[in-house]
């Protein structure tokens, strides 16, 4: 295993822990985005560029955007319930 | 369920999982030493048999083309399900909104009362214009988007779109293909939304276009498969001329299938995101992508 691969594995492990330790959902979404990007780097250094490409877009754009929109929706819904 | 009981339950589960994982990992081949027959054979024969230089795309859209069709329809079904769910709820919201706009006395007084209760700082005179305050609050939210984000977003839309088209069409040559490129294309649409494109998107109404693209992508995959039958071969067999290795129009149906999947994925993700955005904006008081029509 090369140095790069070990570094990528460690970075993913560290960022994964950071995602779990972030308790505020909105911040967690942003940290998840970075986690997704690190995963893409991991896939790339393990010679899977196809998977890395999907991971970049899905992990750093699609999933965070959907999670943010869902959070926004839940929030406005809660506000609506306060004032029906 | 007490905390202690939950912890002991977790300990048992974690121990079983760890034992299973260790057993499985012990049986793995050494790092970097792959000995699978299927992969080794395909790695050797793909370029000569299919004229595709990216083995992964050749596996996805030719050797295991039927599996990819299933995969594509999973995405299709998931996005349709989500859209049905969101539209069902949107009807509720629009109805409630219309009721308060029409001045339904019971609802309006309810709103005034709860508005007072929820916001003690607000004086009694303002409570009546609850809906307007709500809309203004939503508007203020959007205005606070930083100019740097808007500018970057606008500049990135074009390049990301081109990158998406490139990745979709070059799937048979370089890493990439329909799934990856389709998501990149959808990311361009997301960028338009991020870059304050609520107004820009309104006249385009991406929902209808996305629905059409998704349908074309899903149906097109099956159509190419059936075309193989018509050509006198199996379903999803590679019946088109294979072309020269390394050129854009090579690898026969691999290229067509990859492109059609790209269209499907881009359509599905655009549909999902624009439905979500529509929801968000509706609650702010207005619909961005759909005209409000009376039932």
What does this protein structure show overall?
The complex is a heterodimer of chains A (84) and B (295). By secondary structure, chain A is mainly α. Chain A has one domain (3-82). Chain A has three helices and no strands. Chain A has helices at residues 3-21, 25-45, 49-82. The longest helix of chain A has 34 residues, at 49-82. The N and C termini of chain A lie far apart (59 Å). Chain B is mainly α and 295 residues long. Chain B has a domain at 54-86 and 94-100 and 146-283. Chain B is 72% helix and 0% strand. The radius of gyration of chain B is 26 Å and the shape is globular. In chain B, 31% of the residues are buried. Residues 102-142 and 283-295 of chain B have low confidence and may be disordered. At the A-B interface, helix 3 of A face helix 5, helix 8 and helix 11 of B.
Cα distance spanning the termini of chain B:
49 Å
Radius of gyration of chain A over all CA atoms, rounded: 16 Å
Order of helices and strands of chain A: HHH
Order of secondary-structure elements of chain B: HHHHHHHHHHH
Q: What is the makeup of the main sheet of chain A?
A: none
Number of domains of chain A: 1
What is the averaged pLDDT score of chain B?
A: 76
Q: Summarize the biggest pleated sheet of chain B.
A: none
- Report the uncertain regions of chain B: 102-142, 283-295
Name the helicity range of chain B: over 70%
Outline of chain A = elongated
- The number of helical elements of chain A comes to 3
If interface size is counted as residues with C-beta under 8 Å from the partner's C-beta, which chains form the largest one?
A-B, 22 and 35 residues
Say how many strands of chain A there are: 0
Helix content class of chain A: over 70%
Backbone CA Rg of chain B: 26 Å
> How much strand of chain A?
under 5%
Structural class of chain A: mainly alpha
């Amino acid at each position: 295993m090369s140095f790069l691969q070990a570094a990528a594995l460690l970075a993913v492990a560290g960022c994964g822990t950071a995602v779990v330790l972030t308790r505020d959902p909105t911040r967690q979404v942003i940290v998840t985005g970075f986690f997704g990007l690190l995963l893409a780097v991991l896939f790339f250094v393990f010679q899977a560029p196809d998977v890395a490409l999907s991971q970049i877009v899905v992990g750093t754009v699609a999933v965070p955007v959907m999670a943010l929109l869902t959070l926004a929706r839940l929030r406005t819904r809660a506000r609506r319930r306060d004032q029906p | 369920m007490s905390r202690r009981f939950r912890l002991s339950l977790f300990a048992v589960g974690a121990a079983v999982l760890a034992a299973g994982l260790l057993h499985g990992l012990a049986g793995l081949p050494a790092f970097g030493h792959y000995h699978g027959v299927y992969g080794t054979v395909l790695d050797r024969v793909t370029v000569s048999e299919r004229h595709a230089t990216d083995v992964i795309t050749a596996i996805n859209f030719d050797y295991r083309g039927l599996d990819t069709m299933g995969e594509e329809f999973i995405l299709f079904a998931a996005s349709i399900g989500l859209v049905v769910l969101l539209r069902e709820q949107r009807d509720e919201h629009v109805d409630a909104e219309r009721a308060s706009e029409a001045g339904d006395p019971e609802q309006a007084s309810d709103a005034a009362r709860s508005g007072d209760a929820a916001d003690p700082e607000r004086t009694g005179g303002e409570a009546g214009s609850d809906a307007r305050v709500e809309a203004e609050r939503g508007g203020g939210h959007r205005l606070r988007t930083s100019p740097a984000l808007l500018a970057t977003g606008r500049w990135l839309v074009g390049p990301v779109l081109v990158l998406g088209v490139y990745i979709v069409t070059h799937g048979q040559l370089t890493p990439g293909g329909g799934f990856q490129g389709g998501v990149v294309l959808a990311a361009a649409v997301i960028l338009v939304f991020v870059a304050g494109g609520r107004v820009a998107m309104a006249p385009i109404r991406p929902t209808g276009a996305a629905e059409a693209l998704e349908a074309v992508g899903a149906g097109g995959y099956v159509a190419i498969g059936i075309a193989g039958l018509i050509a006198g071969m199996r379903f999803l067999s590679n019946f088109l001329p294979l072309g020269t290795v390394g050129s854009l129009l090579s690898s026969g149906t691999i290229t067509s299938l990859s492109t059609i999947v790209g269209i499907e994925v881009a359509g599905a993700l655009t549909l999902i995101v624009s439905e979500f955005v529509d929801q968000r904006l509706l609650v702010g008081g207005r619909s961005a992508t759909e005209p409000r029509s009376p039932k």
